[in-house]
Every structure is written in structure tokens, then in C-alpha cells.
Amino acid sequence: MSYSRRALQKVRLPTQTGLARREFLQLGAAGLAGAGLLSACSPRPDRVQTSAHIVIAGAGAAGLTAASRLAQRLDGARITIIDPRVRHLYQPGFTLIAAGLQPARYAVSNTGSYLPRDVNWIEAGVAEFDPEANAVVTSTGQRVEYDYLFAAVGIDLDYDAIEGMDTSLIGQNGLGSVYHSPEAAAATWRELDRFAETGGDALFLRPATEMKCAGAPLKYTFIVDDILRRRGTRGRSELTYAAHNNVLFSVPIVSEKVRMLYQDREVDTLYSHVLKSIDPGARRAVFDTPGGEVERPYDFINVIPPMRAATALRNSPLAWTSGPYAFDGWAEVDRHTLRHARFPNVFVVGDAAGVPKGKTAASVKWQVPVAIDHLAAELAGTQSGSRYDGYTSCPLITRLGRAMLVEFDYQDNLTPSFPGVIAPLEELWISWVMKTIALKPTYVSMLRGEA
Amino acid sequence: MQELDPGVMLAVLLEMMGIWFWLLGLLAVIGLVSFGWLLVRERALVASRLVRAQAFALLAGAGALVLMAHVTKSGFTDAGGPVDWLLIVAIFAGGWIGGTILIYALMGWWPHIPGHERLAALFARPPPGSLKRSSRLPSGRAGS
Ligand SMILES: Cc1cc2nc3c(=O)[nH]c(=O)nc-3n(C[C@H](O)[C@H](O)[C@H](O)COP(=O)(O)OP(=O)(O)OC[C@H]3O[C@@H](n4cnc5c(N)ncnc54)[C@H](O)[C@@H]3O)c2cc1C
């Protein structure tokens, strides 16, 4: 199966109308589109009276959005959110940090600042999910019972799975890793900044697991290419992108476009190469390939580790027990409602959900309202027709100043928000503008339940 | 597909611009009200003033582009397709039209602003530092 299908999924609410093609008027708003700004125009639904206790595990993008929206939608509910992390990380900003365009603090804020007043925050991790008993146990031993659970614990970055990898060395000797943290992204930039002065062999890759924002490894390759060109060292450099399977992106039409662009930018592509081990001292990376192990030297590398569902969820009854999502422990949910297949009072939203697409912040924006609509309908004794259809939007940076606004759904169809205005496979400034100025405000508004 | 929700737009714009949203909004309101009031008072558009305002406002259009380039860490040289050129024209036009309204209103109301003569003199007179320097020159305006 292909692991690279990422998605900004889109809700189909029963009341919504079709896309309004007021194309010229849309132009001004277009800069905000890919940031997930399109929204159901229907009026806010009535609040639902309930005394239910709702527990949210994880206060990242999905958990905070769920907290805000639950507080808006439910009247009288007791809402508890559990997460040990005090700093909130705006992860889509990591790429801009690693491109030298933003400082590390650009991606850092306070979890508490997004929490609605009535939401109770337990600053601990969930150590155990016990859905049979409708309870979770925290890392401090506290047992918290719930009527409904939103599991939004996200992803674990499994750096240990790469032999020889040491995250404390990120930012030294050509070793970069944009995904690790804002600080690592900044350290990666410092290393890139140094590397770009001389040029050399740069190596890019992605893991063979599901991953958040599968466009990010591709973007960073384009960014490095552009920076080397601006510094005049591209001629002395070799850029290589190692794909884990036989495509560059899981949506065929996008994969083909990226292949064409890489050819144009003279980026070498390797297929079916999965990073196995690394020797940071000697600057050598070893890949597993169908023909055996292949070693490649590098002067600069962007290591992206295998990704799995957060440990507590992976080891719980909430994970898939068979099929492609079982190995890494993604949660077994209905792909259109995000409701757990075996525990109907559990919803899993965000990166931890075991659905084919949807490991982006933009997906969260469309997943959470669907899940909440189903919960609210159940509490009100009605039915919800909300559906999450796999809409994905990825501003794929192709050089500093330009990006392609790639939007697609579960079926790999392109689903442009502005057909005839913003061409999805065209490198455009407007898409870059969106990524640099509209995405973060939209994300923050989403956390507050306003977008 | 969804439509654009004005409430969502507002929330995002507020988040994006912070205090600038209110400052620019206030400026736009002041500009529009004083422009409208001027029109009512004079019962006509003064052609010569409009042309001068339009000419000065070209700078505001250019300023809008520079500001956009600054905040997006890019520029109009990055334009890659027709929609980018439309966006550039829209940004320029926004600055130019807004600038025209503001400058036209300012020029129209200028004689009615209390103390405008002193203000004008302040702008006309060289600042004290340059006064000193220019006084050393034989043709300095120090005595003016
Ligand atoms: C480099 C990079 C670039 C990206 N680019 C984009 C982009 O351009 N566009 C886009 O839309 N998305 C992008 N993303 C993806 C986006 O950031 C994620 O999809 C999004 O944050 C998912 O939200 P989440 O809540 O599921 O996970 P997270 O935001 O990661 O939050 C998970 C939370 O769960 C907590 N947690 C974990 N385990 C436990 C536990 N046991 N108990 C309690 N709490 C726990 C964590 O502390 C964390 O706060 C990017 C991500 C990265 C890393």
C-alpha cells in the first residue's frame, strides 16, 4: 500500500450548498483558501443540553480544536483534556523555520492559551486507554472515567528505529531533521546555511510508514535546491530524493508533476529506498532496497523517522488489530465519521486516526466538526449526516516564493477550491502567500473553534 | 465544497493582522467618512484635486506591494501565473484607491483643520539640524 496519502479532509454537511463560483470575488479570499478557510455557510447549530463527561486525550491541533468546539456546541457537559505538554507546537511552521524564514519561536505557544475557560486540563499523559471500562489512566496514576472519549494523541517519531541516529546531533556535521522540534528545525537551517556556502551531496527521504504532511519532505528538497541556486553553489551540488516506494506522492497526478519538477531542477530520484541506518560521524546513510542494502555518502541530510500512533494508543484496544494500519497502531475508526469501529463512544481525530489520508492540520479542521456533529446528534437523540470525504490541501512549496496548492480527496481526485482561478498543479505566488501568512492565523483560529 | 464564511474570514484576518486590523480599519472608516462628507459639502468631485490625489496615491499602491513582499518574504517577481498578476494588480489597486480617497479627503479638509498653517509651516521649514548645516552655506535658508 502507499503510505504517502496525506489529507486535508473535507466535511460534507447535509445542509451545505455547492461551491459558489464567484470567481473574481473569490480572488481576494483565495489567499486564505488552502489554509482551510472554506467553511460551511450554514448557521451555527443549536447547543445541545447534556451532563456527559467528555475526555479529550491529547491537546495538540486536534485535541484543542475538539475542546473549543465541544465547549461551543454542548451546554452543561463536563470536558476534561489530558496532555503533559505545556508548549503548543505549530508544526506546519517547522518547514519555514528550517528554510531560515522564521525563528524557532514562530512555532511555539502555550497550550493553556487556547483552552476554553470551562475545560479542565490534567497536565499528565494518558498511560493507558481502557475503553471497555470507559476510562483512561494517567501517567500519575489517576483514573479518569468518561462517557465519551476523543483520542487525539497524534504521532510518535520513532528515531530509534534508524540505527545510529542520535537526535542530539541534529544541526551538526550535515545532519538535519525538520520534523523533530522547532529547535531541531532551526538547527537544520543553521546546518543548511553552512552547507549552502560550499555545496555538496544532499540527501532527502521519507519513511515507509504513514507520516504527517507527506508533502513536507518534497518541499524541503525544493527549498534546498532554491537556496543553493541563490548562493551559486547548485552547480557543485548533487541533490537526491529517496522515495520509500515507487512514487513521489501517493496521488498519481501530483506524483507525476513532482517528478517533472524534480527533473527540471535536476534532483535525482531513487525509488524503493528506505533509510535503515546512519553514521553521523562518517556522514553515510544506508538504505534498504529491493536489491539489498545501499550505502550513500552525504554532506547534508534531512532525516525523517518512521512514524507510529502515540504509544499509549498503539498499545491499546483502540488500535487496528489487522490490516495495513495495525502494525503502527493507528486507531480503528470509520473513515467518514471518525467514530471508533468497536467502541462507539470513542472518536479518534487527527494524526492518530487510522484512515488512508488525513495526517495534516488542515485535515483536523474538517475531521473534528464531523466527529462532534455525530456526538451532538447522539446526545440530542437525532442522526447526523456529516461526512469526512478525505479532502486534503497541501501547499507544496516548489521554491522560495512559489507553491502549488494541491487539494485532493480519499479517491485521489484533485478537488481545487478555486477551479479556473488557482490551478492546483501550477507553481504560484498566491499559494506561497497563503502558506506564509494565512496558514498560521487559520490554524490558530481553528484551535479556538473560530475557523 | 463549502462557501466562504464571513465570520471565519474575520476571525482569521484578526489573527493575521492583530492590532493592525483595527488601525487600518479605523483609517479606512475615517477616510471614507471624511471623503463622503467632503463630497456632500462640495456637491462635486474637484477634478484637479482628484488627479493630484491619484498621482500621490501611486506611492500608496507601490507601498502596498512592498508591504506584501515584506510580510510574505517574497515579491511580485515570484509571480508564476495569471492569478498572481491579478493578485498583484488587486494589491496595488487596493493601495492606490485607498490612498486616493485618503489623500483627496485630506487635501479637501486641509484648509479646515485648525492650525493647518502652522502644520504646513512645520513641514515647509527645514528641521533644526539641517538649519545649522545650511546656515554655514552662503546661500543657506537660515534667515528665511
Ligand atoms: C514538518 C511538518 C510540516 C507540516 N506541514 C503541514 C502543513 O503544511 N499543513 C498541514 O495542514 N499540516 C502540516 N503538518 C501536520 C500537522 O502539524 C499535524 O497533522 C497536526 O498537528 C495533527 O494534529 P494532532 O492533534 O493529531 O497531533 P499533534 O498536534 O502532534 O498533537 C498531539 C498531542 O498529543 C499529545 N500526546 C501524545 N501522547 C499523549 C498521551 N499518551 N497522553 C496525552 N497526550 C498525549 C502530545 O503531547 C501532543 O500535544 C506538518 C507537520 C510537520 C511535523
Summarize, please.
The complex is a heterodimer of chains A (451) and B (144). Chain A has 451 residues and is α/β, with parallel strands linked by helices.
Q: What ligands are attached or bound here?
A: flavin-adenine dinucleotide
The first-to-last residue Cα distance of chain A is 33 Å
Number of helices of chain B: 6
Beta-strand content of chain A: 15-25%
CATH superfamily of the largest domain in chain A: FAD/NAD(P)-binding domain
CATH architecture of the largest domain in chain A: 3-Layer(bba) Sandwich
Low-confidence blocks of residues of chain B: 132-144
Rg over alpha carbons of chain A: 21 Å
Radius of gyration of chain B: 21 Å
Distance between the termini of chain B: 69 Å
Helix and strand composition category of chain A: alpha/beta
The average pLDDT score of chain A comes to 91
- Biggest sheet descriptor of chain A: 5 strands, parallel
How confident overall, as mean pLDDT of chain B?
Answer: 85
Structural features, described:
The complex is a heterodimer of chains A (451) and B (144). Chain A is an alpha/beta fold. A five-stranded parallel β-sheet of chain A has the order 8-5-3-12-23, covered by helices on one side. In chain A, strands 14-21-15-16-17 form a five-stranded parallel β-sheet. Chain A has a three-stranded antiparallel β-sheet with strand order 9-10-11, with no helix packed on it. Chain A has helices at 23-30, 33-37, 61-73, 94-98, 182-198, 215-231, 252-264, 311-314, 361-380, 429-447, and strands at 11-12, 48-49, 53-57, 74-75, 78-82, 87-89, 108-110, 120-122, 126-130, 135-138, 143-145, 148-151, 155-157, 175-176, 201-205, 238-242, 267-270, 274-279, 284-289, 292-297, 300-302, 307-309, 346-348, 387-388, 392-399, 402-408. Chain A is built from ten helices and 26 strands. Chain A has two domains: 15-25 and 47-157 and 308-392, FAD/NAD(P)-binding domain, CATH 3.50.50; 159-305, FAD/NAD(P)-binding domain (3-Layer(bba) Sandwich). Mean pLDDT of chain A is 91; it is low at 1-37. By secondary structure, chain B is mostly helical. Chain B has a domain at 14-112. Chain B is 75% helix and 0% strand. Chain B has helices spanning 6-17, 19-42, 47-72, 82-109, 116-124, 128-136. The A-B interface holds A 10-11, 16-20, 26-32, 35, 37-41, 101, 400-402, 415, 417, 421-423, 426-430, 432-433, 436-438, 440-442, 444-445, 448, 450-451 and B 1-5, 7-9, 11-13, 15-16, 68, 71-81, 83-84, 86-87, 90. Bound molecules: flavin-adenine dinucleotide (FAD). Flavin-adenine dinucleotide binds next to helix 3, helix 4 and helix 9 of chain A.
